[in-house]
Write a structure and sequence with these properties.
Blueprint lengths: L1 H8 L4 E4 L5 H7 L4 E4 L21 H15 L5
Length: about 80
């Protein structure tokens, strides 16, 4: 996918991952790809970052993830 994005769109592939780690995540982190790991506080049930009974990111989470991604792409840190 990285090669397709670079060749076809003259851009880079950025992967955004939820802060849950396993063997495949470490492979991604060590792949040389541009990876953004969402902060661990997104896992808190108290902060409403996940849809209840579903586990997918909530609207609140998506808004903050968009800001994190924007800052990453524009070199503004997190």
């Amino acid at each position: 996918m990285d090669a397709v994005v670079r060749e076809k769109y003259n851009s880079k592939l950025t992967i955004v991952i939820w802060p849950v780690f396993g063997p495949y995540i470490y492979k991604i982190l060590n792949s040389g790809l541009d990876v953004v790991v969402i902060p661990r506080y997104f896992l808190s049930d108290d902060l409403d970052y996940k849809i209840k009974y579903d586990g997918h990111p909530s609207a609140k989470a998506n808004k903050e993830i968009a800001e994190i991604l924007y800052n990453h792409i524009n070199g503004k840190g997190s």
